[in-house]
Amino acid sequence: MSHIDMRQFMCLDDNYGVLLHDSVTGATASIDAPDAEAVEAQLRKYGRQLTHIFTTHHHADHVQGNLRLKELFGCKIIGPKAEADKIPGIDIQVSGGDKFIWSHREVFVYDCPGHTAGHISFSMPSEFSLFAGDTIFAVGCGRVLEGTFEQMYQSVNQFKTLSPSTYIYCGHEYTEANIRFALTIEPGNKALSDRAHIVAKQRANGEMTCPTTLADELKTNPYLRCNSPEIRNILGMETASDAEVFAEIRTRKNNFK
Ligand code: ZN
Ligand code: FE
Question: 113, 135, 173, 221 - which has most CB atoms within 10 Å?
Fold first, then answer.
């Protein structure tokens, strides 16, 4: 099978753009459309025609480039059925459990309510890739704005069933701040302190810290580690459910400076 070229780039303040390109079929997809100009510049640079946008959720920093890119390239927009009325230019509505074919590859859709009510993520197992939008970040997860903590717990933790070698592409570069917070609730986690050094170096060099991998997240992301004895001890929640621990971690993060 042909190879998919993945190109990730920064845009707006801290958003990630990602372009997928199959040189055999010419199919080219943008994960979300944070900034039409930035996406267009990447496409022009490599001489590509945008054929699809995969939309994860309705926030402006993920959809505001939709209509302009559609006008420029006539691309098809695939996005969440549950909030389709808020996705400009949406052509194809999908929801959790759906599977579609993009450039001869299977793409699986996951419902991820919590950050927004209709948020979805896309996985492409042939490329060991998950496009998670604002559900999971490196060492973090999205703010719970339209759903419950319980929903967000499920949305984030469902990815544990994917292959650990899965690359996770997320919506924002928040890794440094996420690590600073994570260290307050799991200071004895050696993998986390090791990662803090690596990430500090990457950021000092102006490098992106994503994509991350599920294997790295399992070792360092507190929202996937609600059963960690150290975290439970620090929170004083030894007997609570994982979802309750999740809610406490996410609440503390909201108040963390
Ligand atoms: Zn968002
Ligand atoms: Fe966002």
Answer: 135
Q: Which stretches of the chain score pLDDT less than 50?
A: none
Ion ligand 2, residue ranges at CB < 5 A: 61, 134, 171
Ligand with minimal distance to 13 CA: 2
Closest ligand by atom to 116 CA: 1
pLDDT value at residue 257: 85
Instruction: For 222, list phi and psi in degrees, rounded to 5.
Output: -60, -30
Q: Which residues contact 161 (CB under 8 A, 6 or more apart)?
A: none
Specify the pTM: 0.98
Which residues crowd ion ligand 1, with CB under 5 Å? 59, 134
In order of 3, 4, 155, the CA distances from 115 in angstroms are 32, 29, 9
So where are the chain's domains?
A: 4-170, 175-254
Distance between CA 141 and CA 182 in Å, rounded? 11
CATH class label, 4-170: alpha beta
DSSP assigned state of 232: H
In sequence order, what are the residues at sequence separation of 6 or more whose Cβ sits closer than 8 angstroms to the Cβ of residue 116? Answer: 57, 58, 59, 83, 134, 145, 146, 147
* Spacing, Cα 185 to ligand 1 middle (Å): 25
